Amino acid sequence: MNRTVRTSEPARYTLVSFHAHPDDEVLLTGGTLARAAAAGHRVVLVVATAGERGLSDPRLADGLGAQRLRELQDAASFLGVARTVTLGYQDSGMDEPAIPTEGSFCSTPVETIAAELAAILTEEGADVLTTYDAVGGYGHRDHIHVHRAGQLAATIAGTPVVLEATVKRESIQKALRLLRLVGVRPGGARTAHFNNAFSAARDITHQIDVRPWTRQKRAAMQAHVSQTSGGSDIRTLAFLLRLPMPVFRRVLGREWFVEVGRPVSAAPLDDVFASVRMAQQ
């Protein structure tokens, strides 16, 4: 739904951000959501699952899904989110079980999920939808399903701009090489794991400067306390939260997107609403 822009006041838009699990919203888009909300835009967060199959401290296992949903609400408040919608699907897990159980997110037809999301997009009059890139970032099957369902939902609802949340692949690989020198391996990640993950710099259309909103982003990350423990390696979230604030701002002060259908320019855009604004001029 396109809005009529009044020349006497700044345009206000609606951004809907679609994610697979609680904490995905802050790691990939937290600064962008906080920046949009601070500018007066309406920000709506849609999360497919409770993330109950996520890695965590075993003592939290029985109530992990419920705890992660509470953490999601806290994180959303730090980011300035106006509305949070949880679709209620089961977390499919990264790769176990090999065949996702019935009712899990990635076993549900894309068309079913797209119809649900499209209804939200239509109700909200969304100007921009964020999803994930085609490989689901690091390959999680629920993330890939978000990509596919999001694309179809935007088509159904007529949402004009779809931004695929991603990370500049080269930046991750460089950071992992530096960390390897000091014996740190967040989440057990190795450089080779990211040879085909996320997006190459040449494909990035948007690089959003979120440095002024890194305190909100950090607070939202801290809300997801269940995801700071568990496993044999230091969790990525725990590692990032240990960074001193100046380093945190430098490492996490930018977020990246690929806009569907937009040619890549020499300088990435620093405005998720750029295409909407251009269309209304």
Key terms:
281 residues, seven-stranded mixed β-sheet, globular
Written overview of the protein:
The structure is a single chain. By secondary structure, the chain is an alpha/beta fold. It is 40% helix and 15% strand. The chain has a seven-stranded mixed sheet with strand order 3-2-1-4-5-7-6, with helices on both faces. Helix 1 runs antiparallel to helix 7 (214-223), helix 2 (64-79) runs antiparallel to helix 7 and helix 3 (110-124) crosses helix 5. The protein is globular, with a radius of gyration of 18 Å. The relative contact order is 0.18. The model is unreliable at 1-8 and 187-191 (pLDDT under 50).
Topology summary:
Layout: E1 14-19, H1 24-38, E2 42-49, H2 64-79, E3 83-89, H3 110-124, E4 128-132, H4 136-139, H5 141-157, E5 161-166, H6 169-181, E6 206-209, H7 214-223, H8 236-241, H9 245-252, E7 254-259, H10 274-280
Parallel strand pairs: 1-2, 1-4, 2-3, 4-5
Antiparallel strand pairs: 5-7, 6-7
Helix pairs in contact: 1-7, 2-7, 3-5
